[in-house]
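Q: Hi! New to this. If I give you a protein sequence and the SMILES for calcium ion, can you show me the bound structure?
A: Yes, paste them in.
Q: Okay, here:
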Amino acid sequence: MKRYIAITATLLSSAVSFANTPGISRIFEYRPAPGQFINALPEIPADADSPRVCEIVLEQIGNDAEGMISLGGFGGYVVFGFDHPVINLPGQYDFKILGNAFINDTATDGSAEPGIVMVSADINGNGIPDDPWYELAGSAFSQSRKDFRITYAKPANDNDDTHFTTNDPQMPEGAITRNTFHKQPYWPAWIDDAEMTFEGTRLPDNGVNRGENGAQYWVLSPFDWGYADNQPNSKCPGFNIDWAVDADGKPVTLDKIDFIKVYTAECQICGAIGETSTEICGAIDLHPDATNAIDAIPATDALRVERLSGQRLSVTVAAYSPFTIFSIDGQALLGGSLHPGENILELNSLPRGIAIIRTRTETKKIVL
Ligand SMILES: [Ca+2]
Ligand SMILES: [Ca+2]
Ligand SMILES: [Ca+2]
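A: Thanks. Here is the predicted structure of the protein with calcium ion bound:
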């Protein structure tokens, strides 16, 4: 008789009420680059100090607020968190970030203004984001320019364009140009600095002017996955902490994160519609009551695992799938391919104890 490993995990469901708040609870910093929506999305008085700025941003994008903020041109950012750490469930999306991107089915119309997402864990436990940051490598990671740096100079007059210089020889200088639609100052009124410098990864330009005979009709196409304000909210399944990479582009394993940073990752001026700027409307932890990666794995029947003698596992899947076995702290131990039907895995090279098996579609706790 076959004996199946008991899975005691809780089935996740949007119908349950959460002890933790799924939306944003804390804003740590909002430092937008200049742009046509700055000082309007949101309105921030010139005399606002840093705590007041964060309060105003939270009123816009905090849990259930349904407002919106703009990050301005390249590099402008917001840093936020929840009232709990976001657990990294292996192989699963962990959080969503809401924006105002749209695209029609034929991609002849759309506005994707992708922002890069970074994550950080509160390693030193002081509750503030002063720990190492890791970029979530999205689908355009290999085509993006790392270590891009831009410096904006505050214009002498509110009606002047904002000039900038960069470290990219292909685009050494440029300007955030003013337009007739937005008449307020484009430099953040509460930031007195004469210059603002931002550094980060710059995505390839995504805007194309499809207007004919000299007309302007700009379409900003989304990248496949991995950016904020890129795919429409309904089409973006979320972000996976597994995508985190260090400054050298090497994957890092994080079992939870406490802070998320989003910055505008395009340095692009699209004619009459102006600079590309990431907008943020909120964020959602997709499994807010997870306490650790093991307990929160949903139970499932499609992947069947049976423990045999001699550290062998019988693994049954419905379709061909790659698989990886992880230790409970997220280290990949072993991988390979599974054929439809029963597969016998010899695992006596692995340490005994609890581990995780991940297939193309599922993740399951196993005992070795
Ligand atoms: Ca994950
Ligand atoms: Ca810290
Ligand atoms: Ca947008």
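A: Residues 1-16 have pLDDT under 50 and may be disordered. Let me know if you'd like me to explain how to read the tokens.
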